[in-house]
Design goal:
The complex is a heterodimer of chains A (about 325) and B (about 290). Chain A has about 325 residues and is mainly α. A two-stranded antiparallel ribbon of chain A has the order 1-2. Chain B is mainly alpha-helical and about 290 residues long. Helix content of chain B is about 75%, strand content about 0%. In chain B, α2 packs across α12 and α8 runs antiparallel to α10. The two termini of chain B are about 40 Å apart. The chains are: A mainly alpha (about 325), B mainly alpha (about 290).
Chain lengths: ~325, ~290
């Protein structure tokens, strides 16, 4: 699967008509300069050799050098990755929380006006362009109310340094976790403040399928015998719903998290652009403006690998949680 | 024609929620499409002419939706701004149907290693973040309506393929298809006359839903600056242009183009929801 993905990216970027070096220079320049660049980037070699160099490079974590300034792409992607990861974690959490809560409420009052409103909410969030929702939230909470910052990740002096033991230095690149390591609550607060609007934007756009899924699953689960039994024993309504029934309906939600993850990364590119969030998505858009083909290829590969690893992780987690599946 | 249409609509409204969803969705999409087509005659100003009014003037009686930073009339830009998005989405849906449907039909009907190979490739594309794939393809193919439509089509062909394939796999086992095979009908005849008609409802549902996806993807591509051209009014372009303007509080430069994209995408989504309930109660949106 991963192999097919890597090959497809290579085919798209190198084999489709269009010479990256020529495209890089919009107007014709010195042909010697172009030839030199081609040699430097290894584009003068035959395609199969380029392909193997690309694959071996990837195994060593080498994503090639930038067509803009010949700097290694891998490092740049590596430093932008944590920002995207942090955004992804928080927005997925928000999507699941909102989706599951609304789905449960909706299933409890099936086919009532409340249920219809929730369903309509799910449909509307699906039809909103994520960047437009981001801008609405920016203008309400950032420009009019001045409650939250409109963009960026944090200001310079507030970037957390992570764990420090004398000379030993360790940081995850996730600002919320790094500031916890540092023990600095103010920095944690600032990081969360900057993180909140982008995550909420992305989370809202993604919550629709979770609502739909939880609603239909809970509708069936709430009518099962063990739920009736729990109710008959006099347990509180909320205990029965969230403690007993929801646990049963959670596995499909896990599967949906895997399916939604690819959508999340696509949305992250737009959200990062809207909120000037310094992650992989914004790096991608930056590089597009420079027509930096190696960098674009590198980012696309990393996004693909990210999705593959997450879906693998979810499969493993699924096997662990569901005793019927054993590896 | 009209006398046939009215009873049709009336019977739709009697179908309950699903009928209403289709009706509202159809009204939204048809209205916006007609508005876009008629824009040269309807829009009060030329959407591209500069300084029609004061730059960035708020909505007023003279300019109901305000003006942008170059003094262009927002109402005129809204009316004509759907052209590219509609062209791209129609074209990409057509390409998806032309490629995805036959691929799903043949692959599942032939079966064996061919089917496994095609499915593997389709699943890889399906699992990949769609927008990022579309961005990469647009970078390579270059700008333009056709290229953008092709890039979007590549992303969504697997959705058609998966739905068609799973449907054909179950239809193939039905007694009447077995009977046709046993009676010595050619493979082609079985596919075209016995299987295809039963798959058409799913194609309609997937295509309607896909319109919304295509529109949102096209808007996203335009937003990050990979649109067709800045000379043609476009809601996505207006949004990306308005991104820096709205930070000064000029909400109208983004509110109306965004609203139009939502209404158009919402129209197709509602129609798709209704159709899927009506035609294909069991079909799940994820295609499984």
């Amino acid at each position: 699967m991963i192999f097919i993905l890597l090959t497809t990216v290579f085919l798209i970027m190198r084999v489709l008509p269009g010479d990256p070096v020529l495209l890089h220079f919009e107007k014709m320049e010195n042909p010697e300069l172009i030839a030199a660049m081609r040699i430097r980037l290894g584009l003068d070699k035959p395609l199969p050799i380029q392909y193997f160099e690309y694959l071996f490079g990837l195994f060593r974590g080498d994503l090639g050098i930038s067509m803009q300034d010949y700097s290694p792409i891998g490092q740049q992607i590596f430093s932008a990755f944590p920002a995207t990861l942090e955004l992804a974690i928080f927005s997925m959490t928000i999507a699941v929380l909102i989706g599951v809560l609304l789905g449960v409420e909706s299933s409890k009052s099936y086919n009532s006006p409340k249920d219809h409103v929730v369903r309509l909410f799910g449909i509307v969030t699906y039809a909103i362009p994520v960047f437009f929702l981001g801008m609405i939230l920016q203008i309400i909470f950032g420009v009019w109310l001045h409650w939250l910052p409109v963009g960026g990740r944090t200001f310079q002096t507030m970037a957390p340094t992570g764990l420090n033991f004398g000379d030993l230095h360790f940081s995850t690149g996730l600002y919320t976790i790094d500031s916890l390591f540092e023990g600095n609550i103010i920095k944690l607060g600032t990081s969360l403040k900057y993180l909140f609007l982008p995550s909420l934007t992305l989370g809202l756009v993604l919550c629709g399928p979770f609502i739909r899924l939880t609603r239909s699953n809970m509708f069936e689960t709430l009518r099962l015998d063990f739920v009736t039994a729990a109710k008959a024993r006099g347990l509180k309504d909320s205990t029965v719903t969230y403690g007993y029934a929801l646990r049963n309906a959670f596995l499909p939600v896990l599967t949906m998290m895997g399916l939604q993850f690819a959508l999340l990364l696509g949305g992250a590119v737009l959200t990062e652009t809207t909120f000037s969030w310094p992650g992989l998505g914004r790096y991608l858009i930056d590089r597009i403006n420079f027509r930096d083909y190696t960098a674009i290829q590198g980012v696309v590969v990393v996004f693909g690998l990210f999705v593959s690893f997450v879906s693998l992780g979810i499969d493993l987690l699924y096997a662990y949680l569901d005793p019927r599946i054993r590896l | 024609m009209l006398s046939q249409l009215i009873p049709g609509i009336a019977s739709l409204a009697k179908r309950g929620l699903a009928g209403w969803l289709i009706l509202i969705g159809a009204i939204l999409t048809v209205t916006i499409s007609v508005l876009t087509l008629a824009s040269p005659w309807v829009s009060p100003h030329n959407p591209n002419s500069l300084n029609v009014g004061q730059p960035l003037s708020a909505p007023s009686f003279q300019f109901p939706l305000g003006t942008d930073d170059l003094g262009r009339d927002m109402l005129s830009r809204i009316v004509s701004g759907g052209g590219i998005m509609l062209q791209v989405s129609v074209l990409s849906v057509i390409v998806c149907i032309i490629i995805g449907v036959p691929l799903g039909l043949f692959s599942s009907h032939i079966g064996g290693s061919v089917d496994r190979f095609v499915s593997l490739i389709m699943d890889s594309v399906y699992a990949f973040p769609g927008l990022i794939l579309a961005i990469a393809l647009t970078v390579v193919l270059g700008r333009g309506v056709v290229n953008m439509a092709l890039a979007i089509a590549v992303v969504y062909i697997p959705s058609y393929f998966r739905v068609i394939r799973s449907q054909v796999l179950s239809i193939k086992e039905m007694p009447y298809v077995e009977a046709a095979n046993a009676a010595g009908a050619k493979r082609r005849t079985v596919l075209a006359r016995y299987i295809l008609p039963n798959v058409i409802p799913s194609i309609i549902v997937v295509a309607t839903m896909n319109f919304a996806d295509a529109i949102l993807t096209a808007a996203g591509l335009t937003f990050i600056g990979m649109g067709v051209s800045a000379d043609i009014p476009d809601w996505g372009w207006d949004l990306s242009n308005g991104r820096r303007l709205m930070l000064g509080g000029d909400w109208w430069v983004i509110a109306f183009p965004g609203l139009m994209i939502i209404l158009l995408a919402l129209g197709f989504t509602l129609m798709g929801e209704g159709l899927s309930e009506l035609l294909n109660p069991k079909l799940d949106r994820s295609g499984e």
